[in-house]
Amino acid sequence: MSPQSRPAVAIARYGFAILSALIAVGLAVSLEAFGLEKFLLLLPVAAAAWYGGIGPAVLSLVLSILALCYFFIDPLYSLAITTDRLPHVAVFSAFGLSTAWLAVSLRRAQQSLVQARDELQVKVQERTAELQRSNDQLRHEMADRKRAEEDATRQAALLSLAHDAILVRDLESRVVFWNAGAQATYGWTAEEAIGRVTHELLRTRSPISLETVDAALREQGEWEGELTHITHGGAAIVVASRQSLQRDERGAPNAILEINRDITDRKQAEENLRNAQVKLAHVTRVTTLGELTASIAHEVYQPLTAVVTNAGACLHWLAAQPPNLEEVRQSIEEILQNGDRAGEVIERIRALVKKSPSRMTPLSINNTILEVIALARSEVHSARVSLQTQLSDALPLITGDPVQLQQVMLNLIINAIDAMRGGSEGPRELLVSSQIDAGTKGVRVAVRDSGIGLSSESLDRLFEAFYTTKPDGMGMGLAISRSIIEAHGGRLWASPNESRGATFQFSLPAGVTRT
Asked: Are strands 361-363 and 253-262 parallel, antiparallel or unpaired?
């Protein structure tokens, strides 16, 4: 209640007390014949106490006492309090005060009950709202759970349709889910697989330890690689495995999802392709050497001719009188040198012709270049080609197969010679260079010729298998050369020169640091 409204409320209460007392007096005087005056005069006291409180009740009681003395107790029409009137006044006052106290108490009790009822209603409403919110939340949770269950059911149905083997295992590697693809791949039904430890069930073999795989899963949350498994029928299969660590809402790991795809046929096809490539590369080397028959024969013929000549000289100097032993010694030394030279030529030819598996060793690319140039020297001379070299001395060692890299260099040099042999008249210049590759810090080798050059069409298809610009070519040399360079982690490409001819280049990563 605001302070401004309090006086008005007090006036209203006391006014009600006076008005109710006056009405009670009027009724008592009118009904005096019935003897109800004292009862009627107590009614305004009770009413004032009920609606106004103890103050208005006392005022109403005083007015009722005055009316009682004036109208109903002898001497009538007098307000004097005589000894005869005192018992009446005392008893009436006691009843009036009791009535006022009882009315005030009842009023307060009623107000307390109303307040308690209102508070109870508020609490009931709050509790009802809280229960409603809880019910709504529970309904939402149940709906979300139902949707999650439906999603899980749909996902499980989709996983069952997948051809890949999909399984879920707990942190102890025990199977908790096994789809139809896993049954088709391994031969065990879901009932047979669930609860089994996967590594024991499938007898897993891995290039790295299974502990390393588990550690990668826990640290990175996923792992991908190849595993070997044994099926129910005892067959060994190779699978491409992708594994992911699943976590609960608190982020703690609780399961591992594993998707395995059988790649046994693909691995076998890759192995067959590698074997076919090795055989085809061998055929290409032999074919290339067949084209160099005259050059090889010349390379071998020269040291053998020198051996025969020096042997004749030895006989001549021995037949002299006295024998010239110094000349004989010099001739024998030349015989040995030419014999070693012929042996080196034959050894290089044997290495190129020999069909052997890849052998990766540290080597100098400059030595490989010089060995191939020595083998093709006669071919260079017969084609009237001027061959120059610019080989850097600061190159790092590389790791590679010497025979395969010799095949690449031999193919590039022979192609360059053929391009200049079939070109227009002009200087036939062949430059073989080596340098450090700025991008990879490895080595870069370039074979630059002044031949017929490259057209835009041939540049696009140059490294395709069976594509050739030679009338009698197989179209496999550059394709095999690129596959060899890429297998060594490098790159092979070609570009036309600004004036004449073309340049073929390849880069290889450094393998061993030169000390």
From this structure: unpaired
Q: How confident is the model at residue 366 (pLDDT cuts 50, 70, 90)?
A: very high
Report the topology of domain 163-262: Beta-Lactamase (3.30.450)
- Dist CA 20 CA 13 (whole Å): 11
Sign of CA dihedral 460, 466, 470, 474: positive
- Closest residue by Cα to residue 9 from 41, 53, 45: 53
Three-state helix/strand/coil letters over 268-289: HHHHHHHHHHHHHHHHHHHHHH
Kindly report, residue by residue over 457-510, the tens digit of the pLDDT: 776 677 776 656 665 555 567 787 888 898 889 999 988 888 888 899 999 998
Helix pair angle (264-291, 293-319), 10° resolution: 50
Predicted local distance difference test score (pLDDT) of residue 431: 94
Q: Average pLDDT, whole number, for the chain? A: 78
* Burial zone of 434 (CB within 10 Å; 0-12 exposed, 13-18 middle, 19+ buried): buried
Residues 16, 19, 22, CA angle at the centre, nearest 5°?
150
* CATH number for the segment(s) 360-515: 3.30.565.10
Which of 26-40, 113-127, 305-319 shows the highest mean pLDDT? 113-127
- For the chain, where do the domains classified as CATH 3.30.450.20 start and end? 163-262
In one-letter notation, the amino acid at residue 286 is V
Q: Where in the chain is the domain with CATH 1.10.287?
A: 265-357
pTM equals: 0.41
Q: Kindly list the strands in the beta sheet with 253-262, ordered across the sheet, starting from the edge strand earlier in the chain.
A: 175-178, 165-169, 253-262, 236-247, 222-230
8 A C-beta contact, residue 510 and residue 397? yes
Tell me the CB-side half-sphere exposure of residue 328, using CA atoms within 13 A. 11
Angle, vertex CA 465, rays to CA 486 and CA 270, nearest 5:
55
Q: Mind listing the pLDDT tens digit for each residue in 131-165?
A: 888 888 888 887 776 775 565 446 555 555 567 88
Q: Which CATH class is domain 265-357?
A: mainly alpha
Judged against a pLDDT cut of 80, whether residue 36 lies above it is answered with: no
The CA distance from 45 to 99, in Å, is 7
Other C-beta atoms lying within 10 Å of the C-beta of residue 22: 14
Average pLDDT over residues 188-214: 86
